[in-house]
């Protein structure tokens, strides 16, 4: 009987491990979400300091970085500077840029940086209410294979910043549609431009789980009072939050970066 009981426990543990739920010995992934204000330190008008942004990233030793407000060859950033590529060079991470809009002779949007090779990159335009003057926004997707041969979809976005929430809600609903079609677990991060209790976040929570419940504020950098930058994931049972931390870096950008460590 003792042998049969031990055998039963072994099979049960094996089944739980194979289900994909993180265990105490699970691998860990460090995810950084950072709105970089096109590498312009708010206290230094007109200055572009990509090295300062890279230093913030390098100090946290992330595996994945979701970056918003990225310039690629714009006039204000020096015409020749591809900020996504340069961040990749200075951090040693693979970089992929997703254009949001044409801007100042170049492009402006979001980027994903990753320790692991990025594949299956996709740019999904997000909707706007035609009655508003909202700026076009996108969802950027890429696939990575993590240690343990776990395939994950990385998703980055920067939702509309207008005071009225109409566009953010439309965009959140579209993101939910897209992520429900993903066959791999997803980590979605970005500047959502809305609060944890907003309708925007409630829509997103139909498919993703935030890494924080009482989320520390991320903006403004001096005396921050609002959380609008988030890391989320799905399905809930494929990840476990080890740490959610807002980095008190107040010089390089007008947002505080968010670092989340996940077990998977």
Descriptors for this entry?
single chain, 264 residues, alpha+beta, Deoxyribonuclease I, Chain A, 6-stranded mixed beta sheet, 5 helices, 12 strands, disordered N terminus
Write up this protein.
With 264 residues, this protein is α+β, with helices and mostly antiparallel strands. Mean pLDDT is 93; it is low at 2-19. A hairpin with a 3-residue loop joins strand 6 (138-146) and strand 7. The two termini are 35 Å apart. The chain has helices at 2-18, 50-60, 83-91, 166-180, 199-204; strands spanning 28-35, 64-72, 94-103, 106-114, 119-125, 138-146, 150-158, 186-191, 209-210, 229-234, 240-246, 258-263. It is built from 5 helices and 12 strands. The protein has one domain (25-263): Endonuclease/exonuclease/phosphatase (Deoxyribonuclease I, Chain A, 4-Layer Sandwich), CATH 3.60.10.10. Helix content is 22%, strand content 33%. Helix 2 (50-60) crosses helix 3. The strands form 2 sheets. The protein has a 6-stranded mixed beta sheet. A 6-stranded mixed beta sheet has the order 5-6-7-8-10-9, with no helix packed on it. Pfam families: Exo_endo_phos. Residues 34-255 form the Endonuclease/exonuclease/phosphatase domain. One of its GO terms (biological process) is GPI anchor biosynthetic process. Keywords: Endonuclease, Hydrolase, Nuclease. InterPro entries: Endo/exonu/phosph_ase_sf, Endo/exonuclease/phosphatase, GPI-anchor_lipid_remodeler.
